[in-house]
Amino acid sequence: MSTPTPHISAKVGDFAKTVLMPGDPLRAKFIVDHYLEDAVLVNPVRGVNGYTGTYKGKKVSVMASGMGMPSMGIYSYELFHFYDVDNIIRIGSAGSLQEDLKIRDIAFGMGACTNSSFARQFELPGDFAPIASFELLQKAVKAAENRKVHYKVGNFLSSDTFYDDSQRTMDWAKMGILCVEMEAAALYMNAARAGKNALAICTISDSIITGEQTTSEERQNSFHEMMEIALEIA
Question: Which of 141, 186, 199, 233 has the fewest CB atoms found within 10 Å of its own CB?
């Protein structure tokens, strides 16, 4: 397949080597408006706007992934394979499954378990364990420590279901899973297959344990620490 793709109208070279991917297109626009200089719209398809600009002199791109692994799977695949992107950093929200991971804390996904069938396409003779780029993870942890923010590194659950009829999401907590979100596993698998790098950084937006939660406006316009850590390591 050549560019433009069915989902991205940009030309080769329009994207930086590193792309930050929030789930929400409005969070992407917030990052552009508040952090990037000389930002240019490079993709307007389906309202999933992609931008490229500079942050402290570095070329950086920002584009939303949408919700869920099918959407993340499409965008990350096209960026890795057709736009010569080397690094994708997911910056999203997640629900805590652990008592010591509070709302607004930051979680780094060292790995990503999943209830999805996304890995079946690779026809592997067993179960694949999706993991982050150690290089990106190491840089992110260092940036978090420099900022003295409360963070945890560990395993995520990437779920295909937001409304889980079985109501068994908390079963994952006994295996030490930090939090639940909906995109990291697909991103990590696509990065592995493409020989590229990926990391998921999530701010805890709600707690499955306590029922505490942030508002949609807070998720769109706050979570600055996560955004700044991602920009620093881009």
Answer: 141
